[in-house]
Design a protein that fits this description.
- The chain is globular and about 65 Å long.
- The two termini are 39 Å apart.
- By secondary structure, the protein is α+β, with helices and mostly antiparallel strands.
- Helix 11 packs across helix 13 and helix 11 crosses helix 14.
- It has 14 helices and 10 strands.
- Strands 1, 2, 3, 4, 5, 6, 7, 8, 9 and 10 form a 10-stranded mixed sheet that branches.
């Protein structure tokens, strides 16, 4: 099994788990594509199909697990990228893209056809395995998965992922958790049973989490971003204590002590890696927790503020509106209305 950064394993809840829970990661169903050469499909912007697949999600992440064969992925403004069996491609930012048997070819399914497919798929009108392409030799077999998550007010994980995340896993590795999850998903999908959709939704989420863990392991030492911060021994500890106790009255001196660094050195390294100062990050994370509580609970606004460290409703409401752009009451009303 892949390992999270050591610093996180001492905590009851590590920051990655915490972030995934607070951004309300939810899985959608899979489908399997068996493509013969030539083949190609064009996927529009996530916002164009998310109302069909995950209508209540703020944002949709798509990913493709390449089981056999090879092909190319094209994203506007990004060089064509080759992929092969064992690769997982994650599109985290909602970009339009195309999966093709050869670069630059005209896809068999354009954006309009793909949208029509999504509608039929959600209506239960298409089989789990979709066959496409020209019938030639070669081709590819790949599984498509979709995840919903919150983007607002603060999703630290999403902000740190590249436009195309590509990781590879090996079935020859005895610790291959990812391969076992994929096999379970395929087995369950091919043997429909009661509760199957719920099982596949959870498996979709687990696959995504394991992909992120593999990505963390592959990050170069000089990389910046939230995931790199988790891996850093000192800054990872600061992130861990913030997530463990977001309502605590943290000071820079207290956070620096947790990191075993001077205050100035801790602030500089935290800001370099995370892109926010420690106190800015604390505020953003508190507002994400508050947003989730406002949307998913009946807690009074004052109680939500107290839950994340604000002694008065006025102080909490002031910071929430400044950070998020709307009042807590308006945020709750929008969440209820699905806005």
């Amino acid at each position: 099994m892949s390992e999270l950064p050591v610093l996180c394993q001492d905590s009851a809840t590590d920051p990655l788990t915490d972030a995934l829970r607070m951004v309300k990661l939810t899985g959608a169903v899979f489908h399997l594509v068996d493509a013969s050469t030539p083949w190609g499909v064009e996927i529009p912007r996530a916002q164009d199909y998310s109302p069909i697949i995950l209508p209540r999600a703020q944002h949709v992440i798509s990913y493709h697990i390449i089981l056999k064969g090879a092909g190319w992925i094209e994203i506007p403004g990004v060089a064509s990228t080759w992929f092969e069996a064992g690769d997982i491609l994650v599109l985290a930012h909602g970009d339009p893209y195309a999966l093709l048997s050869a670069p630059g070819q005209t896809p068999e399914f354009d954006r309009t056809a793909t949208i029509a497919f999504f509608r039929d798929w959600m209506a239960g009108k298409v089989p789990f395995v979709m066959r496409e392409g020209g019938g030639g030799p070669g081709g590819a077999e790949y599984m498509c998965g979709f995840l919903g998550c919150d983007m607002r007010p603060f999703n630290p994980l999403l902000s740190t992922l590249p436009r195309l995340l590509r990781v590879n896993w090996s079935r020859n590795d005895q610790r291959d958790l990812l391969g076992r999850l994929i096999d379970l998903t395929l087995t369950d999908a091919r043997l429909p049973r009661l509760g199957g959709e719920s099982i596949r939704m959870r498996l979709s989420e687990l696959i995504f989490v394991e992909v992120i863990r593999l990505f963390v392991q592959s990050l170069p030492a000089h990389e910046t971003g939230w995931l790199s911060g988790l891996r850093d021994p000192a800054i990872g500890k600061v992130l861990a204590v913030i997530h463990e106790a977001p309502a605590h009255h943290w000071t820079l001196a207290a956070l620096a002590k947790e990191a075993a660094m001077s205050r100035s050195a801790m602030v500089a390294r935290f800001t370099h890696l995370i892109g926010h100062s420690p106190m800015q990050y604390l505020t953003l994370w508190r507002m994400q927790i508050a947003a989730r509580l406002l949307a998913d609970s009946s807690m009074k606004v004052a109680s939500v503020g107290h839950e994340i460290g604000y002694e008065s409703e006025a102080a909490f409401s002031r910071v929430f509106k400044k950070t998020v752009g709307v009042s807590p009451a308006r945020w709750r009303a929008n969440a209820i209305a699905g806005i």
